Amino acid sequence: MFTTGDKDSRNIISIIQAERVAGGGLPFSIDEKMYVHTIVLGMKAIEVWNLCPAIYLMVGGTVASHKWNAKDMRDLDAAFRLSFFGSGVHNSLGFAGNAINAYADTFLVPNTHLGINTSGLMYYNNNANASNVGAVMGTNDEAPVFTQLALGFDPANIGTNNTATAVPQNIVNRKGFRFMNREIAGSFYHYVNTNKTIVNNSTTVNSANKIIINAVSADSGVGNHANGTCSFAGISNGVSEEKVIRTIHLITSAQAILNRQ
């Protein structure tokens, strides 16, 4: 059972109050409060919270409540709060893309805010019938050197830098948690729930384009839109594989609180 100190309590209260006010002043349900409480305290307990510059809880069911970065509750681009574009849908399941024009801009640029060999992306998809197209999260940079940090259903949209790979997954049901992590120089791994793929590669640079949710950014603009339903997203910097596995279990269990596992 978790206990909270004053700082933990302030974190949770500030998140709940900001998202409630932005969402139109409606109070969070007990389940929504429990969801926030579980993720914030859980990520701190497994020592991942401080390794993530951005955590998007996607709770409250509205554009206004989904935009917040739980790590920095200021309503600023510099705080990596989300800005939404296109015709996406916001409801109790989270932010649903449409594989056409919907996406969220995190304003976080890897080559400024992430280490070359320590970057990671997290995304919980709640659309079991998501089509095998698009990138659910990511960025790439086409010149002078092609670099990629992307996460998606289509193997062509999964990779880091110049490498992509097929990923073990249930083709019928793509619902669940994805965590792509580059932990050391020369390799990265990708989890779809508990299925793991390892890819070896090398790089000396990070992308200079912003990380996007339900699409991917590039020098030419935003593209490769996906129709995943984002119930949680995060960006990490320096998470070990042991903590990756713990995070998968934590976030997946937390979704059950809101009946969206």
- The CATH topology name reads Jelly Rolls
CATH first level: which class?
Answer: Mainly Beta
Order of helices and strands: HHEHEEEEHEEEEEEEEEEEEH
Determine Rg (CA atoms, Å).
Answer: 17 Å
Descriptive overview:
Helices cover 22% and strands 30% of the residues. It has 261 residues and is α+β, with helices and mostly antiparallel strands. Strands 1, 3, 4, 6, 11, 12, 13 and 17 form an eight-stranded antiparallel beta sheet that branches. Strands 2-5-14-7-8-9-10 form a seven-stranded antiparallel beta sheet, with no helix packed on it. The two termini are 21 Å apart.
In short:
This protein has helices at 6-22, 30-45, 63-66, 110-113, 241-257, and strands at 54-56, 83-85, 89-91, 94-96, 103-105, 119-125, 135-141, 147-152, 159-160, 163-164, 176-184, 187-192, 195-200, 212-213, 216-218, 221-223, 229-237. The chain has 261 residues and is of the alpha+beta class. It is globular.
